[in-house]
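User: Run a structure prediction on this.
Assistant: Running it now.
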Amino acid sequence: MTVTECTSLLEQLRQLPDPRDRRGIRHTLASVLAVAAAAVLAGARSCTAIGEWIADAPAQVQAALEVRRDICDNGRRPPHEATIRRILQSVDADTLDAVLTAWLTTRPQPVALPRRRAIAVDGKALRGARLSDGTTIHLLVLHS
């Protein structure tokens, strides 16, 4: 995902109502959901994997996903796996699905690459088969 794609995703996710109590919120709903979406696009398959992905993400990625800044060390403080899990459990799935679908439909279609024909070549030496001069016989198998 590019920075502009992160920005457009965050804009879409800001439309969702936050189901959490306003007291004690450290991470915005849009940021946590964008982190989850980006991690899943990168191959994460669980809340634990999402938490590990964002913790290991470079500062530029965390900044693009609007991860909260830490005022003590001037770095980023990504959401913990438990926070991600609670938010994903509490958000309305149908509304989230509609917002993510709307975002996906606005993304540009990938450029179709020209189809290339591939030929696989496999060679085998016939065991025990030898010519009169003592050389082995080789078979060449083409797969298309």
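The chain has a mean pLDDT of 86.
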